[in-house]
Specification:
The structure is a homotrimer. Chain A is an alpha/beta fold. Helices cover 18% and strands 28% of the residues of chain A. Chain A has an 11-stranded parallel sheet with strand order 8-11-14-17-20-25-28-31-34-37-39, with no helix packed on it. A 10-stranded parallel sheet of chain A has the order 9-12-15-18-21-26-29-32-35-38, with no helix packed on it. Chain A has a 9-stranded parallel sheet with strand order 10-13-16-19-24-27-30-33-36, with no helix packed on it. Chains in contact: A-B, A-C, B-C.
Chain lengths: 348, 348, 348
């Protein structure tokens, strides 16, 4: 696809600086772009590359437009405009409607005429596949599962029995939605399995990363609201509830029954214990360990960065003495207090 | 299914308080139950919901029975009884004996008549599938692998060549059992692959979570004893040995050759380095990093919880000075000691 | 297979100590070996087992040869020689050339005559499968993907559209290469998907562990150079670049656009934030959190090991007071300084 800057500006509410008839046909980074490409500046890290870009045009905010050597789409949020321009210039292929001859679809399943079911995919009994859905090669859709319109299930993803996904979701390869939650009752040193009778309910516009796992609820459903984005290798335990438009980066996780609010930002490798309540608009920095509920929006952190190992080891060894160090400090404080008191007395 | 309290009490050694003829047909949470449901109180967090439950009956311990507004099953371990009652009221469907026409079973494999092999599942050469086994859609069973009676392999799980699973196990979707261990010999700045010649041996009544990985041993087998329960995204490296009835929560892992005892409880995201020996009955709290062997049963911990980020940053910065802080403390101690000694001398 | 020590010594540049005509036919550990087996001593942990081994021969360095009760292959790097001897005695089966009748290969794909495509495997449009490649059961190779000669794709691995893998790679089950990177632009409290238009380029002799995820680049490719070894459940985000012969142990990860140098050693559960640059020959110890670029080769660390929980809790509580502890220390220093100054003055 190609488009002029004027066309893109009109579609995405930008101002054009320079020749609006400039035509672009693909996106590229500032440093590698050629004249048929449009690039963007959103991360200040890359600002120095703007002056020397060979792009045909760039997407920038008003502050950077003056520094751009080429025509610009000027807007408040260059990254968001870039995302939309990239989708226009590089459209995803439309579903190839139909069921591959090598797929296996239960006769009791409902597959919309406009849905695509790939080779070796399996659709279980009474499952419901809406229009515009793509079921990738080898993916498995469980019995009575429901996949909303326009949703893409990538190859080898697994959607469990009775799981419900909304519209326009993307589930990446290897994701497992609806495995049993981890529920066992201890009894005389052994473990009795607690049947996991709930399901998973997922809203619209949710994206779920590769090899991410979302367990079914123990009695009621695990719930992922609209617009949630989960990265790869994320773990969502049974009965977790994630509010709309929350994002969780790779290797993060939430243990059973934790409720995460709306619009939260959960950094990579952040893990939360179970039974917490996290309010809306909370942000957790990379690799934090969350053990208490959060009632105030804000930024929460908790990781110690790696250092040169010999230095780290010395500090880590002192950490193991920290309570004793505190006691020594307190003793000193008393001694100095007494000295000062004595001195004061002597001064009398 | 439905049952009376009297029937359930007799089956699971409970006492009935109230009308034993009360019939229940499903389980529910205290807060959402309706009269045909039986609920339970095990976690004190939910105690306040007992008085107002609309459940037809509840499973409680003797201490809570008096507070229950409805008939009760009274027992010592309500959660364990709940687990069993739930399994009675919500029985898992029996295997649909037979091999799906869309499965691929090697002619040299042995599949018991009562086993179910789902669509697109693959059973390799000389594999052995016992009675009552369910092989889910798209799952792959390697050559010479052996699956014990009543075991369920969920869709898209992968069981490697020669892996042996006992009876009544559950392997969830995406789990990979028997990939090569991570073994390489360094040689002139490059890595020579060390053939991974062992297999994986898994006992009876083991449950393995979604996308969990258990590597085959380098020479001898990786071993998972009876009754072990592993949650999702758990990593078990080559030659690890896990004792019977140990549980490991999601995102935990054990590096190569570590031996974990029986009845250990490993919290979520706990990771262990290799070549450790962990005794029976050790417990590790959430997100601990285990770098030393453990010889005494008990509780071990090691994570720092997230805090409000500005507070965290201040403490974390001091952590990086901790060894220097200790040196300053020691200097002060000396100075104060000298002062006190001087003062004592002066007092003479 | 079997071989004499003389044959093995000649092939792998070792010296024979003892009877070079000794024939061995398999490898074993020192403690479990029988006379037809060859064992090795590389980890000093196992040195005590050398004197009592029943192996027919052992691979040792010059220092240990005198202690060996049986004939030896003597060399500088016993583990590297062991790796090669094991590969000789236990050769991997050659590919069974041909496409399984239950596979699904797009007519536009190119599959070399010597390649093996297993049951239920899927090869997409215009994909290219070189000679000696093994595509395991149920694996999915995307459209336009390219798999180099001698590479093995294990069952149920997923190779995305347009991904390129070099020669002699091994991709284990459940690995997902080429899922979309995690890219979203925030816009009015919601998230706009940023199309992930790059691919993944992987060199020769790369091994990728079970359930590991490597995302495609946002615009340009994610790159894994020759000889890299990734363990299980590793996360490689979009635009990451990993230099040749770097190893990353299980559960480690690198966030978007981070560049890792050559010959780095990344321990288990080490995670790196995005946009870092790590120089060649850097090593990160188990469970480190890497938040800054590294410019000097060396060892970097950053984890606090678990302790007996009551001890841990006391130290962790003090950690939360660490900035305040530091302030108290500084106050004391001032007080003592003043006292010393006063004393000095008084002594004048």
């Amino acid at each position: 696809m190609s488009a002029t800057l004027d066309e893109l500006a009109s579609r995405f509410s930008c101002r054009v600086s320079g020749d609006g008839a400039t035509t672009v046909s693909r996106v590229a980074t500032l440093s590698s772009a050629s004249p048929e490409a449009i690039s963007f500046l959103a991360n200040p890290l890359y600002k120095s590359q703007l002056a020397t870009t060979c792009a045909g045009a760039v997407i920038v905010d008003a502050g950077a437009a003056a520094d751009a050597p080429v025509p610009c789409l000027v807007c408040d949020n260059p990254y968001a405009v870039y995302a939309q321009v990239a989708a226009v210039l590089h459209p995803r292929p439309a579903p190839k409607a139909g069921i591959d001859a090598a797929a296996s679809v239960d006769p009791s399943a409902t597959v919309a005429a406009g849905a695509e079911v790939g080779p070796k995919a399996v659709v279980g009994a009474k499952a419901s596949i809406a229009d515009g859905v793509v079921i990738g090669a080898g993916a498995v859709i469980g019995a009575r599962a429901s996949i909303g319109a326009g949703t893409t299930i990538a190859p080898l993803a697994s959607i469990g029995d009775a799981v419900e996904l909304g519209a326009r979701c993307i589930v990446h390869s290897g994701a497992v939605i609806g495995a049993d939650g981890f529920g066992f009752a201890e009894h005389e040193g052994q473990w009795i399995k607690v049947p996991q009778l709930g399901s998973v309910t997922i809203g619209d516009d949710v994206e779920i990363g590769a090899n991410t796992t979302i367990d079914r609820g123990a009695i009621e459903d695990t719930v992922i609201e609209d617009g949630v984005k989960l990265d790869n290798l994320v773990q969502i335990a049974h009965n977790v509830h994630i509010g709309a438009h929350t994002v969780m980066a790779a290797m993060s996780g939430a243990a059973g029954s934790t409720r995460i609010g709306k619009r939260c930002k959960v950094g990579g490798a952040v893990i939360m214990v179970g039974h917490l309540t996290i309010c809306d608009d909370a942000m957790f920095t990379f690799a934090s360990i969350v053990t208490r509920s959060v009632t105030e929006p804000g930024v929460y952190g908790g990781s110690l960065p790696a250092e040169e190992a010999s230095k780290w080891r010395r500090n880590a060894a002192r950490f193991r003495q920290l309570d004793a160090i505190h006691d020594r400090l307190r003793m000193l404080e008393r001694q100095v207090d007494e000295q000062l008191a004595g001195k004061t007395k002597a001064d009398d």
